[in-house]
Every structure is written in structure tokens, then in C-alpha cells.
Amino acid sequence: MSAVMIAITNQKGGVGKTTTAAALLASLHRRGARVLGVDLDPQGSLGFSLGLDIEQCATINDVFRGDLEPEEAISKTEICDMLPSNILLAGAELEFNRPGREFLLKTALSKIEHNYDYIIVDTPPALNLLTVNAYVAVDSLIIPMSPEVLSLLGVSQIKETIESVREYYNSRLKVLGILLNRYNARFNLNREVLEMASQIAQQLDTVVFEAKIRGSVSVAEAPAHGQSVVDYAPSSKPARDFEQLCDQVAGTRFPAVERGGRN
After folding, report:
1. Over the range 190-213, which residues count as b (16 or more CB within 10 Å of their CB) and which as e?
2. How high is the mean pLDDT in each 10-residue block of the chain (263 residues)?
3. Which domains are present in the chain?
């Protein structure tokens, strides 16, 4: 069985893409899944958040350049294998200008996907070549957003890119759902944004996830400890919310296990 490949995407920054990617990787690992994280953001936040020294390890940029095979560029973390990135990936738009450049990630992952049950791709806060590479390679998208109007605008602008990728590169691409981060149902704006997000979800032929991630200081603290919030503060509200999200994503393929999971 080939890996399920999911990209976490939103062209707006600060909406919780990396937090979501790290939490899903951790939750899937707890359930016994073999998982690979791929960081396509030149800021390298996903690798850093999982405890890697991103300036001293091989990166996905080395693979795109043809300097390393994908398997040679993998770093090990406590919860998953990682293809990390760093600032050198920022030149991708100019450096990779040859025909077929939209398939760089798909080609790389085709060589190693049989080793994994899930591959989670963290994308940059832009609709650029790297994001298109993610959309071409994966099966589906999760779109995190914060409960504010500007974040909502970012979601609506993704629609055109998704439709273009479906038409020219990847007809199977689907949106699993829109994920609300830092959600607080007591605030009027949060409830209003939820209603507008539901309308956009209909346009994307998807849903707003039932799981809504509540805010907590543990989310901000976790990366400094090289952990996802699921491992750093497993009893926190956001950790429990991310476990619920994982239930919805993995379904019966990797059902929830007792907290603590497998090693």
C-alpha cells in the first residue's frame, strides 16, 4: 500500500501550518504509523520544531539539486523521518527553471514513499513553485487558518491554484478540510469566521473539520523543546484537539491508541 500524502497549506503566514504538520506527524506516530515529514518552507520551521539542527543536516534542496538521493537526505527525529529545509531553498524559484520543475518533489517521493504510511508536507506561506510542487505530489490538502478575516482571504485565493494543478498536473488532488486554529467559540468573530469558512469549504468541495484547535501557551513553547505540542503537553487542549483531527484524517486505518502510543 502506497503512502497517504498530505500537504498543509495556506498562503498566509502565522496560521499554524507547521504546528499542524508536527502534531499530525506525532499523532500518527503514536498510532504506529510509519511517517515522513517534508519541509518545503525555506524557514525550516518543521525540522527545527522537531529538534533538528537544520543548518548542519542534508535538506530537500540537496535532493532537488541532484546532489543527494532522497534516502540520503533523510534525518531521523524522535517521532519521524524528515526531509528538512533551510534558507538555501529560498532560491528555488530562480534555480530550478528547467522543464518539469513542478515535479521535483513528486519524483523524489516516488523513490521512498513505499517506506511510509503517511507523508506530511509543510508548505511555505506563498503560492509559489514550492507550493505547486507540494500540490502536484500529494493526494490531499489540509488548509489551516486562524479565526480572522485576512486568514480567510488567504484560503479563498488558494482555490484558483488548486484548480490549475488539478487541470494540468494532478487530477486526484482534493481538499480534506479547512482547520481552524486558535479557535475560541466564545468570541463573536470566531463564530463569524467559522460561518464564512463553511461557505468557502463548499466552494472547495470540502468541509470545515469538526476538530477545532484551541489556543494554549504550550503551542508556542513546544518548538523550543524540539517537540510537537502533542508530545510536549499531551494533556493540553490543543493536543487533545489535534488527536481528534488525527482521528478524522486517519480514520480506521490507524485508529487512536492509548495516550503514549507506540515507540
Report:
1. beebbeebeebbeebebebbebbb
2. 91 89 96 96 94 94 96 96 95 87 97 97 93 96 84 76 93 94 77 83 91 88 90 91 93 66 33
3. 4-248 (3.40.50.300)
